[in-house]
Amino acid sequence: MIKSTTSLVLFCILFIGCAKEKFSSESNWLAPLIETKLTLGNLIPDSLLRKNNDNTIDVVFEEEYGITSIEDILVIPDRIDSLEVTLSSLVLEDRGFIDTLKLRDIYPASVFLNGQTADLPAQDVQTNEGTKLDVSEEFFSTATFVEGWIDITISNDLPVTAELMEFQLLNDDGTNTVVVSGTFNDLAPNTTQTKSYSLAGKTVKGKLELRVKRVKTKASVGKVLIDVEKGLRITFQVRGLKPQSATAVFPAQNLVERNEENTYNFGGAELTQVNVKTGSILMKVASSIEEAIILQYKIPQSSKSGSSGPIYKEWRIPASPKGQTIYLEERFPIDGYVIHFYGEKNSAAPYFNNVYSELIAKIEYSGIERTLSLSDEIKIEFGLVDVVPELIIGDPGVHYFTIDEPLELESFKKINGNLSLEEASLEMNFYNSFGIESLLTTNQIIGENSRSHKNVKLISTDLTNPLLLKRAVNLGTYVKPDEQNSILDKSNSNIKLFLENMPDRIIPNIQVKVRPNGTLDQSDFAFDYSKLLVNFKLDVPLVVGLDNLTIAEVKKSKLFENDIISNIKEAKLLVSANNDFPIEALLELEFLTDDGEVLATVFKNKNNVIKDAEVDNVSGKTVSPMSSELVAILSREDMRAMQNATQVRVIAHFYTKDAKRYKMYSDYGISLKITSDVIYENKL
Hints:
This protein is mainly β.
């Protein structure tokens, strides 16, 4: 027990003694952070660099401007016509019906004399009785007419004169409405009389009653042959029937026949032919007609290789239920068709911009009784839509275009500083595969440096005069374009000064006049692949001098990510650099957030020189890379900022001494290895 107590007391004394005095130690950590190589590829994309056989580099940049489609010159507008058709053109067929008022009905006693020769006394018969006539199959069940006639013909087959016949034609529907009434006088044997009566505004039923209210005949002169089956033959003929409404079995007939030339406006162009690459005929129909409608649309002056005829399409619109409307909408493709724009015939005006089309809306004989009226209608919208031409022929008219869309040189936007060049050239290729002349006037070409806000205008004697591009020649299997070239270099332009401004945007202003000298027999043409282009091709051998030209690259950074800054006694950034360039560089490191905000900068204007490599005087190429060691002391403020950074931007500024220019080689670069040297203070 005494030994245990003594041990506890000694432990407490030792513990308390340790708490009264602090111990510290140091540890040194050397950690690699970044390895990278800055090359010309950091300035200029590989796609713009051309390596020559001797490993020297040229910058080659090519871009096309201009008109690359027929649609840049001419657009085929949609042409949709509409019409509303009521049944004002609806007709019923002309029909006839015969009834006979026989002698036996006029003179009943004649039946005893039938077939004999006898005297026939005069008769004067009056009655309100009539003959029922059912013409609903021959004519209609019921109809109210806007126009129409009923012709009543009396043929006297009696052997005596019919001195008077008075009649009425009534609707046999309980109302006994009189449709027509009239009289015939003094109708000699074997003669005929016809009278016409208007049906306009009248409602006529298919079931009628013919009342012969009075028949008066003269006595025979001497004996005559008695035939009781003969008498007064009455023929009813209806014609020109245009109903307001009708219930009938309607005959086949055209409700609409529309043959017309539709004029297109092409803004001054006069086209005689269009070969359709893609396009459609639009047909939209709304019908409340209780009969099936057949629509037929045709463009007679059209054709297609491998097709037997012109553009033609037929649609069938079902009969509409009573009180409802049937709708149809369809686009009928006309891809591959050739449409002539000279109208119905090419032998008479108009000779251009007119498409002749035929539209028929008709009903076919169905044998089914329908009820139709003028309140029924069919609405039709039709025409050519979404036509994209494969070829146009004609006179395109005079058009003006300005080629002024800026050309963005994105790679140049990365470059800051000044550049001096030994040589540079700009080749301008003018290309025309339209069968149309074009006159190009170069008003100006501006090179804009958005970083320095400095603009340089390209000046050359080759750009002062307008350039006429001739029509392409259609050789059947291919089109031979007209091409002309202009090469600008330091002998005929300020191209060096233009490029030394390091423009990141080229702004042209080239005026194009299409068809400046008219056309011959409207024979100009354009295919869908025709182009009118200006091709800019820059060729710059990289023999350059640099003044504060900057190369930069961004890398990820995790410096001091898990460190307690207060435990760091001292920190350094060490840079080991190997420079192949014959040009001295100044290094800079910027520590950034993801948003690009700069939190700390190292090696700025201090201990940042990367020495230039030695140049072989014979080859002009550097002999071997030059090594440089750079050191930066970091403050705690720097360390905290770097701890919050997620990226580091490695920047090299180049300066050429004595305004010298050097050839650039594909293997030039600055290899960088960046490490941190941190001394930690360990405290207990």
